Amino acid sequence: MEALKVIVVAVMAGFAVSALVIIFMALYRNLNKLGRGKRVLIIRFLCILLSLLIFVSLATYTKTDYIKKGIMGFSLGESVANRCGVTGAFISHILFVLFGTSAYIIPIVLFIWGVIRPLHYGRFLLWHAYIIILAVFLDVIFELVPGIYGGLIGHNLLYFLTRWLGNIGLYILLAFTFAGLLYMLPAVRKLGRKRRQPREISEKRKRIRRPKTEPETIEQPPVRIKPRKPIGKNFWERFLSILHQPEKDYISITGDELSKNASLIEKRFEEFGVSGKVTGISPGPVVTRYEYQPAPGIKVSKIESLANDIALSMKASRVRIVAPIPGSSAIGIEVPNATRKDVYLKQLLTDEKFMSSRSKLTTVMGVDIAGVSVCADIQTMPHLLIAGATGSGKSVFINTIIASILSKAEPEDIRFIMIDPKRIELPVYNSIPHLIYPVLADAKKALDALKEVLDWMDMRYREFARAGVRDIEGYNNRSQTKKPYIVIIVDELADLMLTAPREIEETLTRLAQMSRAVGIHLILATQRPSVDVITGLIKANFPARVAFQVASKTDSRTILDMNGAEKLLGRGDMLFLPPGKGEPVRLHGAYISTEEAKGIANLWAEKWLNELLSDFERCEELTQMVIDYDLMDSIVKPDMPGAMERIGNFSADAQKELNIDIGALRSTLLKLDYYPQLSEMKVTAEKRESFKERLDEVDELFEEARKLVIRHQVASVSLLQRHFKIGYARAGRMVDQLEKAGIIGPYQGSKSREVLIEFE
C-alpha cells in the first residue's frame, strides 16, 4: 500500500507540474501583446525569481518544519525555520521527499533559462521531459550512494528495478540510460538554439483583384495571423527526390589530354612569334582554363588577336581569352572540353555554401570553370538583369533561381510576381502559393501590376517611417506582423517594352532605384539585348548582370559593357557580373527540366492544399486527386474558359471515389482564394472601393467621355473640349477623373495620354 501511495502521489505531482507549465505558457502567450523585448525581459525575470525562491527553500530546508505522519502525510510543526516561510517549507519538503538531493537541478535549470534565453513553448516541453528523465536517473544513483537520499521516487524505483533485474541488470540499465542522456544532450541543445518565428497565413483570404490606386495615405490595418508549420526535413527530402541525381565525377578530361593541350597551345603561340609557357591548368565540367604566362615584351593585345587561331589548332568551336586573369600575371585561355558534362541542380542545392546560407533569397548560380559551386544573395544584388540569345539557357537559369528560393522559403517569407508574355516557361508555377497573382501574360495587366507594386513600395516606406526603421529587416525584427520579400520576374522584357516602352521604363527604373530597402527585387530577362530594350536608365540601376551566349560583340557590350559573351558556348554557359565587381566570372548554370519544375510546383501545391482543404475528410487523398487531375490552373483562375466545367467534373469523380459531398467540394474549389493576400493589397482594394463610392461626384459627362476615349484610343483635354464644347478647366477635371478610374494613363508631356482599356 505504501508503494501504491507513492505512485499515486508521484502521478499527482506530475499533473501539478504539468498544470503549472500550462498556466505558465498561457501567461506567456498573453504577453505577446507586449513588444518582443519587454516580453523576453518579463519571462527571464520570472524564471530567475522562481529559481531563487526554490533554491533558498531547498537550502534552508529543516526537517523540524514538518511532523511526519506515514510515508507522505505531514503537518506543520510549531515553528517554521525556512527562510521562505510556509511556502518555502512546503515546496522544499515536497521536492526533497519526491526527488531527494537531485531536487537542486530544478532551480539551477530555471536560473540558466532565465539568464541565457527566453522560453519557447515547444522547446520548453522538450527540455522539461529531458530534465525529468535526468532527475529520475539521479534519484536512483543517489539512492545507491550511502548517506545521500534519492527521494521516494528513487527509493521505490531502485527497489522495483533491483527486484526484477537484479544488481547486474540494474547497473546495465543505468549505464544505457546514462549513455542515452549524453547522446540526447547535443540534439536537445541544438533544438533549443533554433529560434523559430511563427509562420503566418491569413485566416480570411479575399479573391485577388487588380485595384486602381489614388495618391492618398491610408492607415494600414493589422493583419490577423495564425501559426503554421515550417518547412521540415521530410519536405526537404521530398524536394530533393524530385531532382535528377548528379554524376559523381563531371571532370571529363584526363591528365594526359591536359598536358597535350598545354604543349599544343605553347607551340601554336611560338608559330606566331609569341613565347611563353603554361603555368597552370584548371579543368572543369565544360571548359578548361590554361594559365599562359607570356615572356617579357609580349603585348596582351597580340595574344588576344590569336583566339581564332588557337581554336583552330585545338579543334574547338570557341576559345575565350581572359587577358589578364584578375589578380594574376598570367593570361587565361579557356578551351571547351571535347565531352561536356551537365551540371545538375541537386548537387548545388546540397552544397555546403547553399545549405549554410541563412538568407531566404540565396540562389545557386552554377559552378565556375573549376567545378566549384557559386551562390549569390538577391538581397545584395539587389536586382538582376539577364540577357542572351534564344536557347542559350536564360529560362532554365530563371527556373534555377525560382527552385532555389522555393527550397527554403514559405509564402510568408517571399512572394512572387511572374510576368511571361511568351506563355511558355513560367505558367508551370501557377500552383505555388508564393505567387501574388497567377502568372501574367498580358502586357497591360503586367504594367498595371508593376504600378500597383509602386504603390505598395510607397506604403511600406510610410509604414517603416512610422515604425522608426530603415529597411525590411529592421521592420521584421521589430514587428509581430512580418513583411514578405517580393520578387518580380520578367521572362521577356522585349515583349513587355512593345506595349508602352516609356511608361514601363519609368516604372522599372523607379522600382529599381527605391525598392531594395522595402524588400522588392527585380529579375529581368530578354533574348534581344538591344539598346531600345536594355536602355541606359534600366542598365544603370541593375549592377548585377548575367550574359549568356549572344550573337555579336555589340550585344555583349550592351549587357556587360565589355566583350566576351559572344565567345560563350550556350546551354547555360554564362558570364556573371556581381555588383561592385569590374570583371565578370564565367559560370556554368545548373540544368532543371520542365518535369522537375512541375514536380516542385506540385509539391508546394500538395502542401498548401492540405491546409486549405483540411475540413474535408481524407483531405490528403483529395489533394492528390487534384494534382493528378491537373486541376490547379482551374482553381487559381476560376474565370478561365472551361474552369467551372472541369471543377464540376472533378467534384463528381471525387464523390464517387472518396464519398465527398459534391456540392460542398465544388463550392469550395470555385471560391477558394488560393494565394494568400498581402496586407498592402487590402489597402489598395479599400482605396478602389472608396473611389467607386465617389463616382456619383464625377462630372455628368464622365460616362460619355469614358466611351469616347475608349472608342478613339486617344485621351486629351483638347479632344474633350472639341467634342463636348466645354471649357479647359472642366475638360482637365474630366481627364483627372478618367486617370483615377484607371481608364487612361498618367501625364506624358506633349503627348496624348495612353488609353489602358482597348474595348468594353
A few lines on this structure:
The chain has 760 residues and is of the alpha+beta class. Helix content is 50%, strand content 12%. It has a nine-stranded mixed β-sheet. The chain has a four-stranded antiparallel β-sheet with strand order 5-6-8-7.
In words, what does this structure look like?
The N and C termini lie far apart (89 Å). The chain contains 28 helices and 17 strands. It folds into five domains: 25-185, no CATH class; 255-336, 2-Layer Sandwich (Threonyl-tRNA Synthetase, Chain A, domain 2), CATH 3.30.980.40; 346-592, Rossmann fold (3-Layer(aba) Sandwich); 596-671; 698-741, Orthogonal Bundle (Arc Repressor Mutant, subunit A). The strands form four sheets. The protein has a nine-stranded mixed sheet with strand order 10-9-17-16-15-11-14-13-12. It has a four-stranded antiparallel sheet with strand order 5-6-8-7. Strands 1-2 form a two-stranded antiparallel sheet. α8 crosses α10 (307-314). The model is unreliable at 69-73, 118-122 and 191-228 (pLDDT under 50). Helices cover 50% and strands 12% of the residues. It is globular and about 100 Å long. It is of the alpha+beta class and 760 residues long.
